[in-house]
Amino acid sequence: MKPFAGWTRVTVMGVLLLQLCGAAFAQDEARSNRLETSLQSPQPSQTGAGGWSTGSAPARAGEADGTGNLQLGGNRRPLYRLHCSDVVTLSFTLSPELDQTLTIQLDGYVALKDATPVLAQGLMLEEFRDAVRKAYTGYLHDPQVAVALKEFEHPYFVAGGEVGKPGKYELRADTTVIEAVEIAGGFTHQAKHSQVLLFRRVNDDLTEARVFNLKKMLKEKSLSEVPLLRPGDMVFVPQNSVSKVERFLSKPSMSMYVSSTQF
Predict the structure, then answer these.
(1) Cα–Cα distance for residue pair 190/240, rounded to 1 Å
(2) What angle do CA 24, 25, 27 make, to 5 degrees?
(3) Domain 87-151: which topology?
(4) How confident is the model at residue 4 (pLDDT cuts 50, 70, 90)?
(5) Which CATH superfamily is domain 156-262 in?
(6) Residue 233: is it exposed, middle or buried by C-beta count within 10 angstroms (0-12/13-18/19+)?
(7) pLDDT, mean of residues 39-61
């Protein structure tokens, strides 16, 4: 018996529909895979005014930037952490009798009223507030306290070596390495300004270093490669050539380049 012609047309159309659905599914799966790969792949970091920005794609922390130098790590604008001699105020919403103004002592602690001392040095304000709330938990039911920074250490940078006026300077605005040298009195006649060192503190025991050829940058007017300073940075201009600078330096090893009392 011959098949009904309508069945043949239906069968052909069904096959075509299945093929189209299969192709669409394959495209959706491929698109999904590409999207997943894109999300999992590392995205190029965007370097703001405070980063080591150049005309090329920025390198990751610890990688070469195309000039043989290593990128320094850290956030562009890290949140302020409390230091010794900073002054903070505590305001208790439901217990104003506990409001107080405290100075962080040399050991890093503050003496709270009717509570145990709390370590404040190195903490951000939110972390310090949580520590204060914890200290008063046994004294107050659900302590509600606001913390404000009344007096603090102003951002600064240090300039040393062969500059006109070595010392510690307040970092009031965006300042490049070249501008820092100018603020510190400019280069002396003995300055090796083709090997200017920039030291950036990683923690209390470790510092990261980078070398800049300011002589070449000024000559070629490639000032876009000159980074902005961050609070606590040190610019050091040597008198003699520096053969090699380790990426990370401890305090004792920094004495090879600068006096430990300067940084």
Answers:
(1) 8
(2) 65
(3) wza like fold (3.30.1950)
(4) very low
(5) Outer membrane lipoprotein wza domain like (3.10.560.10)
(6) buried
(7) 35
